[in-house]
Amino acid sequence: MFDVPEVRVQAGGQEGCPFPLPAKRKKNANVIEMLEESDGHEIVQALRRRDGCTAKTRCKMVRILVSGLIKLHGSRPPTEIKTGLAKAIVETFPFLRDSEGEGYIEEDFSALIGQNKSDKLSKKWTKELAAQILQYCELQRSGVALGDVFQSLKTAEDPQVALQCLPLFLAPGRMRNTPGRFRNATHSEALNAFIDQQPVGTNLPRYLDEILEDERRQPFVLLLGERSRPAQAFVIFEGRAMAAPSLLKAIDLCFKMIYVFDVEYAPQCYTTWEFVQKYVFEISDNVKGKMGTSPSVRSLRAHLTNSNLPQ
Question: Domain span at residue 38?
Answer without folding.
Answer: 9-96
